[in-house]
Amino acid sequence: MSPRAGSAGHHTLAFVESPVQLLNVLEWAHTRAPRRTGSGVPGDGAGIPAPRDRRSEAGIPAPRDRRSGAGRTAVDAAGADDGPAHEGLTLVVLSPTDPMTRGQLRRMAQLARDEGHEVRWEEARRGTAAPFHTVGGLTPMLRRAHRVVMGDPFSRYVQLLLTITRARELVVVDDGTATMEFVAQLARGERLVRWHRKGGRRGARDLLFAPVSASARRRLTPKSGRTVEIFSSMPIDETPDGVTVRTNDFAWTRSRFGPPRLTKGADLVGTSLVETGVVDGDRYLEAVQALARTHGATRYFAHRRESPEKLHRLAVETGLQVVRPDLPLELIARRGPIGRTILSFPSTVVHTLPLALAGTEVRVAVCDIDPAWLTDHASPRAQGFLSGVTGRARDVHGLSSVSTA
């Protein structure tokens, strides 16, 4: 559904499956953008086309363009043709089926087009034949790509695409806290397994896909003639040999949005730990109630994977206003209004929000997961991993702690 998807000029392909991954590709591209010259207006000789002004169909506020002072808008993921992409970057959205995620992805795609990038929207999971059509359609582009950027190296889709590409430059951008686990596994030469699944039995599909996963891991290991870069806002303790690590400080987000208007109360950030089977639903609800009561929280920003049933019960029993954001929380918080205090359980946002909100008076506080909240199905590594997420956030960003006691 993207114009000129196979045009010869495109040499960088980025594969994303979530709104946060797409945001982090925009952050990565921003760090590589040539400096403007002359008047400072995009397209004035710097090799970057000026983005076209279009009326937004999604109702999102136009991000502030600090170069010209004007508001700018974008189009839907299935929108009209755009000009050439910056540095030949084509963003390929491997769209999931979840309506909430799809909605956020469409709005992020609008912002990407507004930056001058091309977006190719793939219905990669619509029916049993969809993967074959998607992979077949992308193969010519993969063969030509000089650089591949990916948001989720654990994704089977991405791992399969890695076996096709001949790209000499591979870049991994953040997919949240999973990036920390990916880097550690790559450094130790382990198979790539998401942290909340590690320790469980390997199913038939895992065994069938094992050769593809092993091939992807080898591709993500630097060697002569192939470079691997990790672009991350996460604290990384183990750097694999030969891998370049670059810091994501959310410069694009801070340059385009905010600073936000602050409210007097506190906001609470939701998590999908119940949906992934890590935390018991009743215990989680009790914890949310305690935090809201103690800290005067009035709003609950739902994670895009939280179930409607759980959110309905939470709203009824806690009295919190449940907000389902239409963009990643980093952008929601930056454009405001947002509470002066943001309360969060172990989550990616305890690392990203302090960066996105740098220079504001917002305080981010973290609440650890009590071991008693874990389900019988939780991975043996769950408690240690979650404690590490919040512990490192306190060390790196100086965040305060809150308790449900």
Order of helices and strands: EHEHEHEHEHHEEHEHEHEHEHEHE
Count of DSSP helices?
12
Helix-strand makeup class: alpha/beta
Strand order of the largest sheet: 3-2-1-4-5-6-7
Largest sheet: 7 strands, parallel
What average pLDDT do the residues reach?
82
Considering DSSP H and I runs of 4 or more, what fraction of the residues is helical?
25-40%
Strand content: 15-25%
Instruction: List low-confidence stretches.
Output: 1-10, 36-86
Instruction: Kindly state the number of beta strands.
Output: 13
Count of spatially separate domains: 2
Return Rg in Å: 21 Å
Envelope shape? globular
End-to-end span in angstroms? 51 Å
Assembly type = single chain
Region (Disordered): 34-87
Biased composition (Low complexity): 70-87
Biased composition (Basic and acidic residues): 51-68
